[in-house]
Amino acid sequence: MTGFSANLGFLWADLPLPDAIRAAHRAGFDAVECHWPYDFDPAAVKAALDETGLAMLGLNTNRGKPGENGLSALPGREVEARAEIDRAIAYARAIGCGAIHVMAGYGKGAVADAIFIGNLTYACQTAPELTILIEPLNRYDAPGYFLAGTAQAADLMIKAHQPNLRLMFDCYHLQIMEGDLSRRLEKLLPLIGHVQIAAVPDRGPPDHGEVDYRHIVGVLRDLGWDRPLGAEYKPSGPTDASLGWLDLLRAV
Ligand SMILES: O=C(O)[C@H](O)C(=O)CO
Ligand SMILES: [Mg+2]
Asked: Which domain of life is it from (predicted)?
């Protein structure tokens, strides 16, 4: 049966992270993931993970100054970008989290490409035991974000040539940018480190909109994908009232 990871950047985002972990456990999630956990004491986060038995699958590097969306592809910001990578690695190690999404920021062109590859290589080699993720974001939510498609991501991964560098396949962003999700999942499977889901286009629970996730869950299962899918959607009210989709997708 397919498992699901609650993305606590959006689900139970009104609770302190340790309590959000407990809420995800009560709701029956198989794992959790987050965006930016840095305001919370890693010991308290680890205690909640140990208490519930849930794994924290991933966290993000910090985004930088207000209005920025990551630093790792930005010329002249390498020192800060690597400090944020170091901070993310230390936090991930402290709580036993397996993956870090290194956020690129609003760069472009060959210079940004080279800088991003350098910073990704640094992250991969500093923490060879962790998976380092890169994630294409859609042009509506993040106009100008450096990484905007799977071909670009695959090209970066070939150039960086690091065994622990993987693609975050966020079905929400990639349906908007590229579509053809079933064939794309099949083709890119060896590059994928984590899969996320949300309704398109409203980023609500994955039970409506233009993607039928019953089909996508079946495709992934048939491809042999056996890791929890990240529920990274924005509930329109209390998270506990938004979870009808869980039984629907578990039944696939
Ligand atoms: O927004 C997303 O899809 C991401 O997964 C993220 O980590 C924050 O931008
Ligand atoms: Mg995502």
From this structure: Bacteria
